[in-house]
Specification:
By secondary structure, this protein is an alpha/beta fold. The protein has a single domain, classed as Ribonuclease Z/Hydroxyacylglutathione hydrolase-like (Metallo-beta-lactamase, Chain A, 4-Layer Sandwich), CATH 3.60.15. Helix content is about 15%, strand content about 30%. An 8-stranded mixed β-sheet has the order 6-7-8-9-10-11-14-12. A 6-stranded mixed β-sheet has the order 5-4-3-2-1-13, with no helix packed on it. A hairpin with a 2-residue loop joins strand 8 and strand 9.
């Protein structure tokens, strides 16, 4: 199991029905051709299921039966499971596909046409999805793309979930304000392709999420470097499980970094 490898590398004791109103903005102001398939047991009201599929892809399932997949590449596991909505980013081809499943009703690309920023604010059932853009640098630090990355925000069951995408920059005050409250944060921790561990830890600490889900890690060393930079006030939990169910009531009192083991939808 991937979590077993992490445990070997990481000494835990050393690391410490109408429009949906946004409850997350603390500072800023056709017929379906299929029946979307849920990937787990029915959820209690107010509970969200999150499954780590690998790389930067998570599957979010709401109690209303909505299924969203982040950084969708065309493969999520079980081909009979069709998301209601997918989000994509353009930094690398491991974060998007040019050929999304045509059965998916809502495909949200985190980059705009002709270099313009993507402006996203969509609803599907009990799920709202919006974005805040940030800039991309070039693959070797040169060039780049203004507003090329989208931080996707998912609002459901009273929770605010943020996915940082392929973040390349410390966020500005305006960006933090546009993001608003974040309860659950998905953060890339590779340490190089996105940002170095200290910079990423700064962003994570500032956003003050109570549950942090690392992603985009390729080795135990990269993950360990990120965890070592995090404030010891964060608890660290390593799990052999690939998914977690969370509600407003069950958010941890102490900010917690939960490392899930990647697995496709069965």
């Amino acid at each position: 199991m991937r979590a077993a490898l992490i445990l070997a590398l990481l000494p835990l004791q050393a690391l410490a029905e109408g429009p949906l109103d946004s409850g997350c903005l603390a500072f800023a102001t056709g017929e379906a051709r299929f029946l979307p398939a849920a990937f787990g047991a029915p959820l209690d009201k107010g509970t969200l299921r999150i499954r780590f599929l690998g790389h930067a892809s998570f599957a979010l399932e709401t109690p209303g039966g909505q299924l969203a997949v982040t950084d969708y590449t065309g493969v999520i596991g079980n081909p009979d499971v069709v998301p209601n909505v997918v989000t994509m980013n353009i930094a690398h081809d491991t974060h998007f596909t040019d050929s999304p499943d045509p059965r998916i009703p809502l495909v949200l690309r985190g980059w705009g046409p002709l270099g313009l920023p993507a402006r996203i604010d969509e609803e599907t059932g009990d799920l709202r999805i919006r974005n805040v853009t940030s800039d991309l640098r070039g693959p070797f630090g040169e060039g780049g793309r203004r507003d090329g990355n989208s931080i996707f925000l998912f609002e459901t069951t009273g929770l605010c979930i943020g996915h940082l995408g392929h973040l390349h920059q410390i966020l500005s005050e305006a960006q933090y304000a546009a993001i608003g409250r974040v309860d659950v944060l998905m953060v890339p921790v590779d340490g190089g392709y996105t940002m170095d561990p200290a910079a990423m830890a700064e962003v994570v600490t500032r956003l003050k999420a109570r549950l942090v889900l690392p992603m985009h890690w390729f080795t135990g060393e990269g993950l360990r470097a990120f965890l070592a930079r995090m404030d010891p006030g964060f608890a660290v939990e390593l799990s052999d499980a690939s998914e977690v169910e969370i509600s407003w009531k069950t958010l941890p009192d102490r900010p917690t970094i939960l490392v899930l083991s990647p697995a496709p939808i069965p």
